[in-house]
Amino acid sequence: MFKCCSCERRIFEYNLFYIELFQATFKEINLSAYSNGGILININTYRKGIPIVRSFHPDFVLVRQYVKDVNVNWISIILGMQYGAVPSVNSMKALYNFQDKPWIYAELRQIQRRLGEEQFPLINQAYYPNYRKMFISPPHPSVIKIGQAHQGLGKILVKNTADYHKIMSIIEMSQCYSTIEPYIAGRCDILLQKIGQHYKALRRRSLSNNWKANIGSCIIEEIPLTERYRLWLDEVSQLFGGLDLCAIELVQAKDGREYIIQVNDCTMQLIGEDQETDHQRIADLILHKMEIFCRPNEQMTLLTRAPSLIQLPIFLSDYEQKHFSNEHVRWRLHRKHLTFLFRFQPVTMLSKSSRICRSYRVIPLSIINASSRASSTAVKADDRPVKLTQSYYHHASSVPLLYHTVGQHLNILAGEYPDHRCYTFKGERNKSYTYKSFLDEVDSLATRLIELGFEKNDRLAVWLPNTSENCALTYAASRVGVIKVNINPAYMGRELLYCLNKVACKGLVMRPNVKIIDCIKIINTIIPELSETKGEINSKSIPSLKHIILTPGDNGQTITTPPGMHCYVDLIRKGGNSKRDELQARQAHLDGDTPLSIFYTSGTTGQPKAATLTNFNMLNNNFHLCYIYPELMSRVCCPIPTFHIFGEIAGTLNINVPKYFTTFPSILPDTLETMRTVQEEKCTALVGAPIIFRDILAHPKRKEFDMSSLLFGILGAAPVNPALIEQLEREIPIKTISQGFGQTENAASMAMSVFAENDKQRRYSSVGKALPRLEMKIADANGKILPVGQEGEICARGFNIMRGYFNDDEKTRETITPTGWLRTGDLGVMDDQGYVYYRSRQKEMVIVGGINVYPVEVENFLLEHPSIGEAQVFGMPDKRYGEVLCAWIKPKAGMKINNVEEVKNFLASKVAFFKVPKHVKIVESFAPFTTPTGKVQKFKLTEAMVKEASVTA
């Protein structure tokens, strides 16, 4: 039986590796091998009684079926693979060596002669090529093995000489070699297993007193992996040319002594309760080996802009069966013939009975640079840390990746947990939603978006604070296939205009006002013709914009909808059944790769860039963030803005984990309401930028609130002082504080320090190590991995890396390498356990209270002042905000600036409040702070400002 999986090619796909899968047993294969390399395989099968032949040229092979079985020898196929130079997990040479167990035993004797019988206790064995040579009766009781003796077949216990002579006739009939070894009255069997860099030891105790230890009547438990066991696995692996898949079977006698019985290669049996993890480790290993062998000319890289098609045949036995689910395709096979589990993400819906070709997308999980392979895995199967020598860490995980949209996931949750609360909005009079009521509002909104003409990949801008409408729009956009464009509600006219035009937004959702910001006045200023608009908008300043939707104001208060706008409440109320069928039909055309959100970030030019994230990026990053410690994130208090990727992931999307809920304490940051929310909702987690936590510590009413329910705190969006973490755990108290490290470009998080839960020094001072299924490295300017402890650029790769910057291929190429690595622009070092220590930013942005501010942008606004000739904007440390902006300005020749407050007021009318510098200084020259080429060194400006502030203090 086999399955053929063809796959489609796409451009501009990151993190995806395309595989065409062919599966067959040896007996179904015809093979032709060529001296110039390569083989042609024909698979002969029947479908509804009609013979079908599949032909293909494999690029890589996984063999999990015994080459030699009862009365059958498939060694010719292995020879053909070697002839055609087709790579495999274990080498073809190793597969060839393992065709005969006496040959393996003879090779193992080399290790025993070198280490000694005590250090390598290989059981004594006699080999007889045929029965005629068995003229000397061995000591009894003994075990005679005829041929390969798979699963106990051909393995006979001989108790005395009479039985021995009787059995000789059976051996004569078999026309096969045999081996004899002493029978060990065992206490238990022990299986040692190696999958790549993962090692494991299992003890198997028989329940039935069956000396063959059939796994159907055994108790299996994992035991500590001793250094002795590890040595044996390493020695066996090296002996046969570097086995990545191998196992050693031991028997432990009643006196406690252990004997090595046999060694298995890639056909090894997987047993125990943790087989799912073993399956995933084999899948990771396969992708790593395919990277090495299938892309030798690309420095062993897997992720490319236009991924190649790799054909992977998997040879299975006659008894193997498969089970399909709509979420993943999992291999569920009989005990000994269990091949491996490969998490395929289906592009087309699967039918359990269908055997036609289907499309799959495979996520690469364990891609290791070949130059650092020996030292690049920081945790082995027994979870004991292994010291790294190269600054590369991959966090292996068995947590599945989800390949559907955020909106489709909400539909699943609403069906399973309809009455479970998912959101509470304290700033909207404690407005709450269950999964079912939230889905109803989302789908009502989604159907109206369809009626308004929104198509897949249209952009819908959301210029809102933390409101229920903001959250609903995230899911409605996902349900329709629209891209939600998140805009800071503090942005003023020109900032808003740029964001809308940058990605050609078709719609805008806004409030009448945000605090003192009159949003309606701003929008009428940039679209003067709006007041006379009937129907779709036709704006000269924003040609793409067709619809504006106005949400309620404070406390749910609605106003008369101005001309040219739709009322959000009316849209929800009128959202009917007219487009329900179309909404459901759209789901078939949406998948995990459908873009979900655009978040604005910026580069050294100061112009914001539109980072595009997919449903797959955001849904899975949220899942892996929550599954690190599931009990900690069940009740989240989220005061951080959701226009920021951190707030969207940790707050809005937190409900994607079943029965989790999020409470937003206020629509805008409010320390008092945050503390009150933690107490009233008994929140288990609080997420936010350091400024949120600092304000709680400094609040005069803090001790009036009981926040003892907090088990977890995540500090992100800005660097954190270790003293702050210690103070939070001691004084609030929060049981565990974790730093989070990430960027908009990788869906908010790539590392967390919570993994060092019992190591306070690492948890306080590092930004953590990679989240599950992610890779991190410290690299030089050429992308080469640096030794542990050496400073370089922090880079990350994995499922959460953005699709790219919208309509900006040049900046995308600068940020994401052809091999899929995200260049963060941050400098750091990695220790020998994979923990990363942040040093500084290569970019010159300033993080004010967790919000990125780019000096060049502010400088450009300053230069619009009629009296300013030159401006330099930079950051300096601040106890509350982490950093604040400073501006040094030089007047134009012959001009005079009366006072710095005039400059601040000038900026306040043009930019968001957090972009207005706290400190402004008028200077006559920048010469003392420039390089020989005239470039201003901003770090010197910072040093001078800090020194001046300390003198003043």
From TrEMBL:
Subcellular location: Synapse
Keyword terms: Phosphoprotein, Synapse
Domain AMP-dependent synthetase/ligase residues, every copy: 414-806
Gene3D superfamilies according to UniProt: 3.30.300.30, 3.40.50.20, 3.40.50.980, ATP-grasp fold, A domain, ATP-grasp fold, B domain, Luciferase, Domain 3
Residue stretches making up the Synapsin ATP-binding domain: 90-291
Domain of life: Eukaryota
Domain Synapsin pre-ATP-grasp: 17-88
Any Gene Ontology biological process: neurotransmitter secretion
InterPro entries hit by this protein: AMP-bd_C, AMP-bd_C_sf, AMP-binding_CS, AMP-dep_synth/lig_dom, ATP_grasp_subdomain_1, PreATP-grasp_dom_sf, Synapsin, Synapsin_ATP-bd_dom
AMP-binding enzyme C-terminal domain sequence ranges: 857-926
UniProt keyword annotation of Phosphoprotein present: yes
GO cellular component terms, A-Z: synaptic vesicle membrane
Molecular-function GO term, any one: ATP binding
Pfam families: AMP-binding, AMP-binding_C, Synapsin, Synapsin_C
Family listed: Belongs to the synapsin family.
UniProt name for this protein: Uncharacterized protein
Upper classification of the organism: Eukaryota, Metazoa, Spiralia, Gnathifera, Rotifera
